[in-house]
Structure formats: C-alpha cells, structure tokens
Amino acid sequence: MLNLQATIPNQFIWPDDEKPCTEAPELDVPLIDLQNFLSASSSPSATLEASRLISEACSKHGFFLVVNHGISEELISDAHECMARFYDMPPSEKQKVQRKPGESCGYASSFTGRFSTKLPWKETLSFRFCDDKNSPNTVQDYFCDALGHEFLPLGKVYQEYCEEMSSLSLKIMELLGLSLGVSRDYFREFFEENDSIMRLNYYPPCQKPNLTLGTGPHCDPTSLTILHQDHVNGLQVFVDNQWRSISPNPKAFVVNIGDTFMALSNNIYKSCLHRAVVNSQSERKSLAFFLCPKKDRVVKPPRELLDSNTPRRYPDFTWSMLLEFTQKHYRADMNTLQAFSDWLTKKPIK
Ligand SMILES: C=C1C[C@]23C[C@H]1CC[C@H]2[C@]1(C)CCC[C@@](C)(C(=O)O)[C@H]1[C@@H]3C(=O)O
Ligand SMILES: O=C(O)CCC(=O)C(=O)O
Ligand SMILES: [Fe+2]
Predict the structure, then answer these.
(1) Does the CB atom of residue 237 touch ligand 2 within 6 A?
(2) Closest-approaching ligand to the CA atom of 203
C-alpha cells in the first residue's frame, strides 16, 4: 500500500519541526578496526586503541563503525536476501505473523493501529534472540512455528546471524567496559544470556520524502544496536544541533549505545538521537540487532562509576520493565528513559 501512495495520508505527515527538509551532511564516525583486538594474539596496544576510539565516540554521540569484525560477507548477504524474500511476500502472508498489541515481536506495517499520527514509512519484522543454551534455536523455531516449515531456511540464516551479533556485542561490551575504566569482563558478563531483539526494517520508496520519516527521531531504549544498512542512504544522527548522515558501508556495522547502556554507565555515555529518512527512488532495508540483558537482571551502574560527585542518575530497573513501558505505555522517542524514570517514581510525564 505504501508503495502506491501519490498523495500522502495525513497520519504519515510529520510536523514541520520534524520534517526532513534539509540535506544532512555526512558525519565522520570513528571507524574501529577490530582485527587485532579480536585476534588470539591481540596486543594491549590494539585493545587500548580500540577502547580509546570507543570512548571518544561515546563521549560525543554514541555512534561508531566496526570493520574486520569477523562476520562473513556471505552471512550478511544471506540476511539481506532473506529480508527481501520476506518483504516480497503478499500482505496476507506477512500478516500471519502480525505483531500483537503490547508485544515486541511480529510483523508491523507502519504501526497502523498502534499509533494514530506521525506514522513511520516502513514495514518491520521483529523477533527474539535468546543467548541461552537451554533454548538454542529460538529464532529458527519462531520462523517455522509462526510462518511454516518452508521458512526453515530463513530461520537458519537469522539464527546464525543473531548468534554472530550476540558474540560481537559481547566483544564490544569488553571494549566499553575498558573505555569506562571498569573491568573487561563486567559488561560482558552482564550481557551473557542476553534476551535480545532482531529487527528487519523495510522502507518503501515515498513520493513525498520531505513530508515523511521511515523511523522517527528516537534514542534506542535498548543497550547496544548493531545495524547493517543496505546500499541506500537513510540513517541520520543528531549531533551538535544538526542532522548528519551516516553513509552505508557494506563492510561495516554501525554501532550505537542505547538508553539502557546510558543508565549502566550512570549517564557518562549518552544514547543518541537518530532517525531514518526515506526517498522517492528506491526502497531501503536495514538489519538491526538490539542487545538487551536477561529480562530480570537489575540495570544499575557498577560501583566504580559512582562517587560523591556523580550520584545515581536513574533508579534501578529491569529491561523487562522498560520494554513493557515502550510497548504498552510510551512511544520511544528522545526522552524515553527520563519518562520511564518519572513513571517509575510516579511523577506526571511532561
Ligand atoms: C525496544 C525497541 C522498541 C523499538 C524497537 C526496539 C529498539 C528501537 C525502538 C524504536 C525503533 C524507536 C522509535 C519508535 C519505534 C516505535 C519504531 O519506530 O519502531 C521503536 C520500536 C518499537 O517500540 O517497536
Ligand atoms: O534503519 C535505520 O537506519 C535505523 C533504524 C533504527 O534506528 C531503529 O530501528 O531503531
Ligand atoms: Fe534506532
């Protein structure tokens, strides 16, 4: 339906102060080469350099690129190809896995029925990945159970892709720990047995791309996002009061910290406002892996990040509580964590 629109329905038109009406100059994002850090004989200097670059990025805008990450080009290509196959299916097939109200998994087209204004110009498929030896095939099983056994090949690709994403996330967590002056193991152990979300974003071409947004301005409420863009520009980050674009680089993953990691860092690192714009010429797709801790793990900063000058910025919470807040009570935007804290402490949301 989105493809055929010449006139844009009002609910897809964003307010003037949020329209993507100006060009977004490219942002020069720190590029972190993980080759040496990941090698068995990684040198302390390689680790130090990688954690220094991450510290620089996370102190500025929370976005960085990783290359030589060890994930095969073939697997990434398969993941994009499977996404194309899913979105080429007729709406009736995709709606077999329609996202249910209040749930984070399933298929959604523009979130009609969930939101009434500022609808995103996109279709999404989200599913759960569990880094848990007791449930080793959650992704593969989801595809077979929800879509049918003929989707086993897709399920296998995304099961492997998510396992690689989880493993890469834990290595990045080692670097984030070092960059914050806590032990290399602290955050890695916190995210073991992670219960994460994989999302396939599909953005159809739009006849009036200066009126709409593929994904509206937001900070990811999650802990770490590992994103792979296809060859079409669209990701923009709000830095120094200006929207800046991050150009696609097929060999790189775009990594950003989210609200939950901002809380874990006691606000030393900030999750960053970003959005996705669309265009009139071509569709755009992105693979987004959202690292989330085990649901009942208490999110609070390590004691090394607390002292009399830097008291606690956010209350203890679990990811399960924050996820439910975003799915049932609040549309994630640039103030989610503060709104969630107010909600937890029962202050009226501003
Ligand atoms: C936990 C999540 C909620 C969203 C998907 C993941 C991480 C990003 C969130 C989101 C993309 C932020 C913008 C608004 C949102 C509604 C969307 O456009 O999809 C958010 C996702 C969601 O609530 O489904
Ligand atoms: O598609 C993109 O480039 C960004 C999408 C995004 O920010 C998200 O899904 O949280
Ligand atoms: Fe995002």
Answers:
(1) no
(2) 2
